[in-house]
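Bench notes, bay 3.
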Amino acid sequence: GIGAAIVLALTPLAATPVLAQDSISTGAPSGHFSAEEVARFSKQIETNLAARGARVAIVFRAGRAREKLPKGIAYTHGAFWVYRDIQTDSGQTEPGYAVYNLYAGDGKALPSTASRLVQDFPYDFTSGSSVDDVAVIVPSPEVQRRLLAVIDSPIYAALHNPAYSLIANPLSPKYQNCNGFMLDVLAAAVWDITDRDQIRANLKANFKPTTVEAGPVTRLLAPLVTAGLKTDDHSGRLRTATYESLADFMRANGMLQAAYSVSFQR
């Protein structure tokens, strides 16, 4: 019957684009690590970045097990890690990494069709990982300098589009996810532009998004499965920004110092 057909049609969706991003909450633990392991892994990542002299890095986690992710997507949520003075709970100031995220609403305090910008910390970021590694992009020193200037300016918030989709098309202005937001910030920084239309035009000419495999029935029924998954900003195949496509773009345009993964040392 029709009901059974819908259930069958939705089955592949649950295993593909709906899991392309996981920017759902502020550090909601995945349960993959214990609290002690989260603390160790987040400190390991910080130490790795500091050893490379990274003032600004882009770090990616996988919020779902790899076998549940779409083909070609190994990580689901990315954020800027910025080395700076941080005020502790005791009121003291210590150097460390602050994490700058775009998070989607949880469907309660904020609709899942909307997002907000949140600054938290490495522990919060790492606790959301469902695998034993993260991916890291260290921009070139000049790009780090430019990114920091944008992050610390009103431009950063102005580039945020709160209309959220899990697989937002980074070449369309309609929706934005975490990786698409970081791409816009990167574009504003390296091209010294703030106009969204100009950013989009430059990205269309220079950036190649990652293709997400999804059949026509899956695309049609996607909004019925989760309000945060929309496909009307795509024409043809579904495409979104990922660690892989961001790293390729930065490598091809001389913006990259290093791109690699960091595995938890158990």
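Next record in the batch:
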Amino acid sequence: MTTPAFDMEAAATAVETVVSGVTEADFERRTPSEITVRDMLAHVLSFTEGFRQGATKEAIGRSQPPGPAPLAPDWRERIPAQLKALVAAWREPEAWVGETEVGGVLAPAPQMAIFALDELVIHGWDLARATGQPYSPAQEDLAVLLGFLRDTPREGIPGLFGPVIDIPAEAPLLDRVVGLTGRDPAWAAT
């Protein structure tokens, strides 16, 4: 039986904490991803369900690439519930076996799990920065992401990551991970 390589609970809890601090007054603020907080919350709703389905493999052959969607009125209740469901789904050993599909992309399940972790950590950071909240993801999660992102091409990956921002090796791990996704760790809301 396959043992999950890592657990997503710490990352999901960090996102839930940030989301709980978001107010409607924050909705039009820009995030480091150049979308509004409202649109980022809608994205969180989308990817948490998409990657939960990736763990259960229920969407193989049926998933669609993500697109813009309005923010559901019950986002404040749904995001925490979907985060918990995502964590639970990836705790099942079967989630890590074979291939799965998320957003119209078929890939090995362990790779999809890393994509899910990346979405949690990076978009948690995006929301925290946009709303001026503290954010401290687990060092273990950042180490997984550093290994995953280490070979990102300098020019980035269109549609996923902007051009890599050089961050000194002695910088905090979060700053190095964020820089590999094309985000400036010094970014602050204006």
